[in-house]
Amino acid sequence: MPRAVAPVVRTDGTVQPDSGDSYQERLAKYFPIETSGPYLAASAAVTGMTDAHTTSRTVWLLVIFALFGIGTVPLLMKQYSAARYRNRWLPIGFGVGAYAIWAYSLGSLPQELNFYSPIAAVVLPILYGFGANFSPSQPESAQAPTAG
To answer: TM spans, by residue (predicted)?
Structure first.
């Protein structure tokens, strides 16, 4: 059964190399690169130009996380159009959740807020990627036609 929440996959028919995508990289494929790239650049700039565990760094990291998290929603709405998806909020929710877990696994903001766990940073992306396999939402064209 196809799913609406689908990461980009290799389609050339070859076996994935041993140096394939990490779970963090796979998780990032559930939301737009227009979110992840600028988030990485902005958070790296903030951590490079501010001292650790300061109000300034914490506020900037929170603002960056919130702005790009909110910005993820319209980007995903464009990707999962209402005309094509009956339950488009499910893949949009998966995408926003993937963004949040991906950002957590990077560590900069959670370390500032003192709730970072290296174990959670490894396990959460794995569990989230596994759970996304069970998304019931699919494009309208892939759903069975109804009698009418």
So the answer is: 59-77, 89-107, 113-131
